[in-house]
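Re: the pair you flagged

First of the two:
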Amino acid sequence: VGSEMCIRDSFPIRTYGKGELAMCYIRGVCQHTAVKQFNEWIRTAPGLEERLLATGMKRGSRHYTPAQVQLIVNVFGEP
């Protein structure tokens, strides 16, 4: 279900595993590489990491909540 959710016309805002969401944005690489690159995008997008942490996200958490996914989509657009 995960990867097919990323190719629809309208991207569903729901809970995503960190690897799952990273793979939606960064294709053609292994999940570990996608997560590392996606984390770098989040760190370098002005204010995004701070806003995610303010929602209760922990750096070691394995999922993004729907509110966190919405913040990410607001910055990067739909994958």
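Second of the two:
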Amino acid sequence: MFVKIHNSGNTEILAVSDEDLIGKKFKQGNLYIEVSESFYKDKRVDKKQLEDLLLHFDNINIIGKQSIEIALKINIIQKENIIFIKGIPHAQIFAI
């Protein structure tokens, strides 16, 4: 899996993607996502590293079966918060 941290003003956003999705585009109806290297690819992490990162960020953009499974396992998302685009799970978490 790959992660990348983005800074937007006073907010940090963690972008997470399964490795095999980098560089791909998915469109289904009016839903579209591009899993670009520039947004998602910085550091490669294992499951434990990803768990630790997910627990420390309030704003997360996550895509891919493996990444989503980890987020579900540690209860930072629920199944009803996941959307599927061409069968690929995607979720966003934003602090209010």
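The first strand starts at residue 2 and ends at 8.

-B.
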